[in-house]
Amino acid sequence: MGQAMIRIDALWLCTRPQDMRAGAERLLAVVVNTLGRAQAHHGYLFANAHATRVKLLVHDGFGVWCAVRRLHTGRFAWVNASSAQAPALQLTPAQFEALVIGLPWQRLPELEVISRA
């Protein structure tokens, strides 16, 4: 197969809830206003207040892509925006994959090991 259509070198979880009616331009403004800039080949992940929907915004160097995912039951494992240490947290690809299918991505390191303790 060839190269991926959209290259993502870094993924960021934006901790503040967003209105899911927001389009790519509004979410891009949130990234720039919050983080100071939107870097090429970086993805920015947003959730609504109930953490039932997420949007991924990716700057590909020429424009932006926006994708939406919704859980039909349950919620995405999201951080509490009021207790978050930063407006955005960097995610590993494994954390991102776990998050978008509704798994507890924050616990991945401890889930990789089975022990008696």
Q: Which residue ranges are poorly predicted, with pLDDT under 50 across at least 5 consecutive positions?
A: none
Count of individual beta strands: 5
Envelope shape: globular
Kindly state the mean pLDDT as a whole number?
85
Largest sheet data: 5 strands, mixed
Strand order of the largest sheet: 4-3-2-1-5
Helix content: 10-25%
What oligomeric arrangement do these chains adopt?
single chain
- What is the N-to-C succession of helices and strands? EHEEEEHH
CA-to-CA gap between the ends?
Answer: 44 Å
Radius of gyration: 15 Å
The tally of helices reads 3
Strand content: 15-25%
Briefly note the structural class of the backbone: alpha+beta
What is the fold's blueprint, element by element?
Layout: E1 10-14, H1 24-35, E2 42-47, E3 53-59, E4 64-70, E5 88-91, H2 93-100, H3 108-111
Parallel strand pairs: 1-2
Antiparallel strand pairs: 1-5, 2-3, 3-4
What does this protein structure show overall?
Helix content is 21%, strand content 25%. With 117 residues, the protein is an alpha+beta fold. The radius of gyration is 15 Å and the shape is globular. The mean pLDDT is 85.
